[in-house]
Specification:
Strand content: 25-35%
Number of helices: 6
Oligomer: single chain
Low-confidence stretches: none
Strand order of the largest sheet: 4-3-2-1-8-11-13
Structural class: alpha/beta
Largest sheet: 7 strands, parallel
Number of strands: 13
Length: 226
Amino acid sequence: MKNKFISAKEAAAMVKDGDFIMVGGFLGHGTPDSIMKELADSDVKDLTVAANDTGFPEGAEKNGFRGCSELIARHKVKTLYASHIGTNPETGKQMSEGTMDVRLTPQGTLAEKIRAGGFGLGGVLTPTGIGTDVAEGKQVINVDGKDYLLETALKGDVCLIKGSIVDKLGNVYYKGTTKNFCPLMAAACKTVIVEAEKLVEPGEIAPEDVMTPFVLVDYIVVGGNN
């Protein structure tokens, strides 16, 4: 059986210039902090990132959570798909300056775009955004007299997520809201790397508690308790 264990530095090295990465977490909760730190310290650039948000700027983090903020601060992100950016002024600054293409996407729509990518769909139809700036440049499809936006699927190169409990095969359990986008992202990317808060033996996670199955996980990083 393939040895899935790698270091955080080795995980970061799998992300190449121009890659599309998906990063789990909600305001940093459930983000693989060890991997993100190594990625920020690397020379990688021109990334496309899909994440719920961009965390908190340096010095304003809560309980040590910064999410994607260090990638933003070091200008490594070229294009960003996110639900909101209000907690990190640096993101708004780069958006206003035109140095980063920020594609603000309603949270449910972002989740569905990622889910569509993971399930082999071309996209989803949603009424959310009709008549707003969100609809700019997008196809409108009328179904039974109601207009819907066609939101195309998102598929990534590398998925970086964190599991509360991960077994040595790569089965993942997420505690509470740390689950957020993680299962959807794990299905939508070519390479999936999970940072384990707690590592256990196979079988210690009950089958009904497995939220991302081992067949989707390529690598495991044993991380901290953040």
